[in-house]
Design a protein that fits this description.
CATH architecture: 3-Layer(aba) Sandwich
Shape: globular
Strand content: 25-35%
Number of strands: 7
Bound molecules: adenosine-5'-triphosphate, magnesium ion
Number of helices: 4
Number of domains: 1
CATH superfamily: P-loop containing nucleotide triphosphate hydrolases
Structural class: alpha/beta
Largest sheet: 7 strands, mixed
Oligomer: single chain
Order of helices and strands: EHEHEEHEHEE
CATH topology: Rossmann fold
CATH class: Alpha Beta
Distance between the termini: 11 Å
């Protein structure tokens, strides 16, 4: 059964400041048990959004990076009492076994989970029981992006 869709909102992120604003706004609604799925092409702003979100949650934004080899990074809890598990599946070869990544354990834990390039794990996300916030980023200009945010029931 498909989880119910609560609502879809579109945000015009005309500058990086608007992206920060959206991250701050979303951060206020998070309790740490959510799963954020960030989709969109290369350079569309997914990692930048994670960095803004970390900052809004009192987690040092400098923790956040896009490393070449690590698929899962964990940032320790900040002011709001929960950390972030930052998953980036871009470099995962098609058809890979996701088991060794330890996603099940992360999903059962207390960290907020944020996933870039989530397509490869769709089945896992749908069955994990966490409330899902899906954000699709699009490039609309040199420093402009669009974000379509969709909340789903667990
Ligand atoms: N309004 C904006 N919001 C977010 N990023 C912006 C904005 N304007 C410009 N940028 C720039 O766009 C780039 C986005 O890169 P980022 O690494 O966040 O993309 P990504 O979606 O994570 O890409 P990848 O799929 O390669 O991981 C950054 O250099 C960022 O500074
Ligand atoms: Mg990225």
């Amino acid at each position: 059964m498909n989880p119910a869709v609560n609502g879809t909102r579109t945000f015009s992120l005309r500058t990086l400041a608007r992206t920060k604003f959206l991250a701050r706004r979303l951060a206020k609604t998070l309790a740490g048990r959510e799963l954020l799925l960030l989709s969109g092409g290369l350079g569309s702003g997914k990692t930048t959004f994670v960095r803004c979100l970390a900052e809004s949650l009192g987690i040092g934004p400098s923790w956040v990076s896009s490393p070449s080899f690590t698929l899962v990074q964990r940032y320790p809890a900040g002011a709001r009492g929960f950390g972030i598990a930052h998953v980036d599946l871009y470099r995962l070869p098609p058809g890979s076994d996701l088991e060794p990544l330890g996603l099940e354990e992360l999903l059962a834990g207390d960290d907020l989970i944020v996933v870039e390039w989530p397509e490869a794990g769709e089945e896992i996300w749908q069955t994990c029981g966490r409330p899902i916030v899906q954000i699709r980023f699009e490039v609309t200009g040199l420093s402009a992006r669009r974000a379509v945010v969709e909340d789903r029931e667990a």
